[in-house]
Amino acid sequence: MDTHGISDPSLFLIVETITCPDGTLSMALTGELPEGPTQTGTWMIVGGTGAYTGLHGTGDMEVTYDPDDDSLAHVTFTGKVTR
Question: Would you call 25 exposed, middle or buried from its count of C-beta atoms within 10 A (0-12, 13-18, 19+)?
């Protein structure tokens, strides 16, 4: 589930929560304006439950949007996660 992380949506801060059978992981995503089908930005872990409790991490992300349907995208996260 994605939500705006702050009240000003023009700042492109989204909090994405990923739900897995063994817990949840929440990441703050800050994106730049897309250039063509690609958007770049950064990510940071902001919370976790279950197996993901106590994780810390940051890195970069790259989003590539489907040229036929921009509601579909492939996201690649790179960076470092520690406990």
Answer: buried
Nearest to residue 17, comparing CAs of 41, 38, 45, 37? 45
Q: In which domain, by residue range, is 43 found?
A: 2-82
pLDDT 10s digit of each residue in the chain, 83 long? Answer: 555 455 555 556 888 999 999 999 999 999 888 888 999 999 999 999 999 999 999 999 999 999 899 789 999 999 999 99
- Tally of domains within the chain: 1
pTM of the model: 0.79
